[in-house]
């Protein structure tokens, strides 16, 4: 039986794209409390099926697929630029494929404006009309208003006219930043990308017995299975070790391991890998937002995905990328040594090297030196920062990692940071080593 939360989500998905949604309306039509309606609408917003816009309300939008994540809807643009919708509200759900800055003559500008684009322009009323006629939405910068006939035209064409107090350059930068952030997120592999769905895997139900485990083992050649109740909620895990010496008639709940570790579909692959390596787990059940089993991931799947990610070019740079790109190998003989210039982006409000940057430098230097001892991948378990002294902008520091201990599955590295011959930072890094 579906819950009220699920019923609301299903109802929202039946609404036409562009429909307005309110907590009170949902509560009244589905006879639920306003609290339940609010939580469901927020969940739908997280799923990307609705969008909430200040001074406009919540509207149903087309859910963007993962491959389309770098595109924005006009509704999202309103939120990004803190804008006000002057007209064409019914078109806020539409997706724009590009934006054009109208800082040129009209004839030249219109060569770049086509249906589905967004024209960023100032107080040029004639341009607003021509852009709408060409099928483009308009973002008016400088806080200017639009003429009444332009607003009416926007309503007729279902193309938003948006006003923002920011200038054109700032608006373009803000929209670019939003797209750029999404491109970085797009490259983060999630459990949902690699899981084996229920249609291709096997599981046991709490009412079944050990004999059923043997049947699955014979047909699939696997030895680990999640155990679920009739509502598909995971109750345990059963492995070959659990059923040793047990009779076929023994109920599976008597031999399974209860309260197993699980992940959800939005967990990153890197986080799942850390959990599996740290806990020594070979398989993890994957749950949906309602805590129901939707598939599994194996240790082999996770490690293979991590290796593929490392081999692929990344779109967009994270802050860690910007820091590690500054590191130069200045090793002398058998001593590993790295230098790095302290840029303004690497400093705190006081102008000294920030703790987050130090952590990144320690991780990178420690990882590099461990890979000289042992080929493969590693997962950093713990970094202990003993102390750090102020280092000013534009000064060069040297990072010296020394391996204290390394085994088949474990590594420990002491890392010292020097500036002009003096130690200005010291840390200890411990990592799990993974064979490829």
Describe the structure.
The two termini are 45 Å apart. This protein has helices spanning 4-14, 23-30, 34-47, 74-80, 106-110, 125-133, 148-157, 168-186, 191-194, 210-220, 269-279, 299-311, 319-324, 355-373; strands at residues 20-21, 50-53, 57-60, 72-73, 84-87, 95-96, 98-101, 117-121, 137-140, 161-163, 196-197, 204-205, 225-228, 234-238, 257-258, 263-264, 283-287, 293-298, 328-329, 338-341, 377-388, 396-406, 410-419, 422-434. The chain has a six-stranded antiparallel sheet. The protein has a five-stranded mixed sheet with strand order 5-10-9-8-7, with helices on both faces. Strand 12, helix 10 and strand 13 form a beta-alpha-beta unit. By secondary structure, the chain is of the alpha+beta class. Helix 1 (4-14) crosses helix 3 and helix 6 packs parallel to helix 7.
Give the SSE map:
Elements: H1 4-14, E1 20-21, H2 23-30, H3 34-47, E2 50-53, E3 57-60, E4 72-73, H4 74-80, E5 84-87, E6 95-96, E7 98-101, H5 106-110, E8 117-121, H6 125-133, E9 137-140, H7 148-157, E10 161-163, H8 168-186, H9 191-194, E11 196-197, E12 204-205, H10 210-220, E13 225-228, E14 234-238, E15 257-258, E16 263-264, H11 269-279, E17 283-287, E18 293-298, H12 299-311, H13 319-324, E19 328-329, E20 338-341, H14 355-373, E21 377-388, E22 396-406, E23 410-419, E24 422-434
Parallel strand pairs: 7-8, 8-9, 9-10, 12-13, 16-17
Antiparallel strand pairs: 1-3, 2-3, 4-6, 5-10, 11-18, 13-14, 14-15, 17-18, 19-20, 20-22, 21-24, 22-23, 23-24
């Amino acid at each position: 039986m579906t819950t009220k939360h699920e019923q609301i989500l299903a109802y929202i998905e039946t609404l036409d794209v562009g429909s307005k949604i309110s907590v009170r309306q949902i509560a009244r039509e589905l006879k639920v409390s306003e609290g339940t309606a609010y939580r469901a609408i927020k969940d739908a917003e997280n799923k990307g099926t609705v969008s909430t816009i200040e001074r406009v309300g919540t509207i149903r939008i087309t859910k963007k697929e993962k491959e389309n994540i770098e595109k924005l809807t006009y509704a999202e643009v309103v939120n990004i630029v803190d804008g006000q919708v002057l007209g064409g509200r019914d078109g806020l759900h539409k997706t724009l494929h590009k934006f054009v800055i109208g800082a040129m003559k009209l004839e030249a500008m219109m060569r770049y404006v086509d249906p589905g684009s967004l024209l960023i322009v100032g107080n040029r009323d004639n341009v607003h009309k021509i852009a709408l006629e060409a099928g483009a939405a308009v973002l008016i910068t400088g806080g200017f208003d639009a003429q009444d006939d332009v607003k009416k035209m926007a309503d007729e064409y279902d193309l938003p006219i948006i006003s923002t107090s920011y200038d054109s350059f700032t608006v373009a930068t803000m929209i670019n930043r939003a797209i750029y952030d999404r491109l970085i997120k797009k490259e983060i592999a999630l459990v949902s990308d690699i899981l084996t769905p229920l249609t291709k895997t096997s599981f046991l139900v709490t009412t079944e017995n050990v004999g059923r485990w043997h049947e699955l083992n014979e047909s699939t050649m696997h030895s680990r299975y999640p155990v679920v109740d009739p509502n598909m909620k995971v109750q345990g895990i059963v492995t070959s070790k659990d059923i040793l010496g047990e009779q076929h008639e023994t109920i599976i709940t008597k031999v399974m391991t209860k309260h197993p570790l699980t992940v959800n579909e939005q967990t990153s692959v890197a986080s799942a890998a850390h959990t599996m390596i740290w806990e020594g787990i070979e398989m993890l059940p994957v749950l949906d937002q309602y805590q129901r089993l939707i598939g599994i991931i194996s240790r082999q799947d996770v490690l293979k995905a991590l290796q593929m990610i490392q081999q692929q070019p990344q779109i967009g740079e994270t802050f860690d990328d910007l820091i590690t790109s500054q590191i130069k190998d200045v090793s002398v003989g058998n001593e590993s040594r790295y230098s790095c210039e302290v840029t303004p982006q690497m400093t705190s409000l006081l102008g000294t090297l920030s703790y987050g940057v130090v952590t990144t430098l320690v991780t990178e230097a420690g990882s590099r030196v461990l890979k000289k001892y042992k080929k493969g991948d590693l997962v950093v378990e713990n970094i202990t920062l003993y102390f750090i002294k102020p280092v000013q902008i534009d000064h060069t520091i040297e990072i010296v990692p020394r391996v204290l201990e390394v085994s088949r599955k474990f590594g420990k590295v002491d890392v010292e940071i020097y500036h002009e011959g003096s130690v200005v930072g010291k840390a200890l890094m411990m990592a799990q080593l993974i064979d490829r």
